[in-house]
Design goal:
By secondary structure, this protein is of the alpha+beta class. The chain has seven helices and six strands, in the order H-H-H-E-H-H-E-H-E-E-E-E-H.
């Protein structure tokens, strides 16, 4: 046993075995209470694309979709959110109350990107590989690889 404890490779192997799986950590995301939807099936002019207003009207979320998104989505940085991941003109937005009592503005688009603007203006960015709802577009392989590389683990509670 002493030889095992002194071997750096053995210690690393033990840590890898005992470390929680990313999927388990991912399920510990933002705990969301009340959700208000102020824009649903909306179309943004800030993103280029050929999605028509009629196409975007079909992207409609319900409060349970929003809660699930933020419960399982992984954090990404601002660069990935604004430049690297696929974007959609189609989105939903609103406000929510975190279980901590803090209120935030939220945004989720058809391509599985989301954001929370917390009190004080701090913005958290998300991408949801684990979202299984048919409301979202299929995941492009480039987005899957990038999100996995950038995933920062479960968000810290504000």
């Amino acid at each position: 046993m002493k030889a095992f404890a002194r071997s750096p490779g053995a210690v690393l192997a033990l840590l890898v075995i005992l470390a929680p799986a990313p999927s388990a950590a991912r399920r510990q995301g933002m705990a969301v209470g009340r959700v208000t939807i102020t824009a649903n099936g909306a179309r943004s002019l800030d993103v280029s694309g050929d999605e028509t207003p009629a196409f975007c009207r079909a992207f409609r979320l319900v409060p349970a979709d929003v809660r699930t998104f933020f419960a399982v989505a992984g954090r990404v940085d601002e660069r990935a959110f604004t430049h690297d991941l696929s974007m959609s003109r189609c989105h939903a937005a609103g406000t929510l109350t975190l279980k901590t009592g803090a209120r935030a503005r939220w945004f989720i688009d058809l391509e599985r990107r989301g954001s929370l603007v917390l009190p004080g203006g701090r913005t958290l960015y998300f991408y949801c590989l684990a979202c299984r709802s048919s409301k979202f577009d299929d995941v492009y392989e480039d987005d899957r690889a990038l999100a996995k590389a950038l995933w920062r683990g479960p968000p810290k509670r504000p």
